[in-house]
């Protein structure tokens, strides 16, 4: 039986964009909490881990209805954090040309895409995430999700996300979500985003 695990960070620091204290707290406290709680709930329901977390998110009806709310919340927290940390890098990367072409197709230019993404993230009330997703027709869209909702629950496939819960930026940026959003684009690994995109459109 293979339990869901957190991704392994392949970097030691994301300074200066994300301070090391925030990275440590976010990865080792918040992300761990959702992962551990999800596994605890699934074990209590005799879940055998035969499906991926993404499959479970899209087929939650295999879980008894009275157990679903807590599992959905922690599953969302697990999936959202997994994608968020996977998207980040401490190395300089370029946007693959085929992905850039798709972004240009749907948003006009990368600059306009970034502006729209940040604008959406600033508009999100309270806690949550902003996602770049594929819809059922494999078209790129930007959407917001509150708390630990994940796009899989609504028929979308997320390929990139920025966490806008305050614990992801407040120690360094305090109330300045705009600055955090501007800076974090500098450490997103779009080669990974593109790989998820390719895997998702197959």
List the keywords.
single chain, 202 residues, mainly alpha, minor pseudopilin epsh fold, 8 helices, 3 strands, 49% helix
Q: What is the CATH topology assignment?
A: minor pseudopilin epsh fold
Shape: globular
Give, in order, the helices and strands.
Answer: HHHHHEEEHHH
Q: Span between N and C termini?
A: 27 Å
Overall pLDDT score? 95
Rg, rounded, reads: 17 Å
Kindly provide the name of the CATH class. Alpha Beta
As for the number of domains, it is: 1
Write down how many β-strands occur, each being a DSSP E stretch of 2 or more residues.
3
Would you identify the regions where 5 or more consecutive residues have pLDDT less than 50?
Answer: none
How is the biggest beta sheet arranged? 3 strands, antiparallel
Helix tally? 8
What's the helical proportion of residues? Answer: 40-55%
CATH superfamily: Iron/manganese superoxide dismutase, C-terminal domain
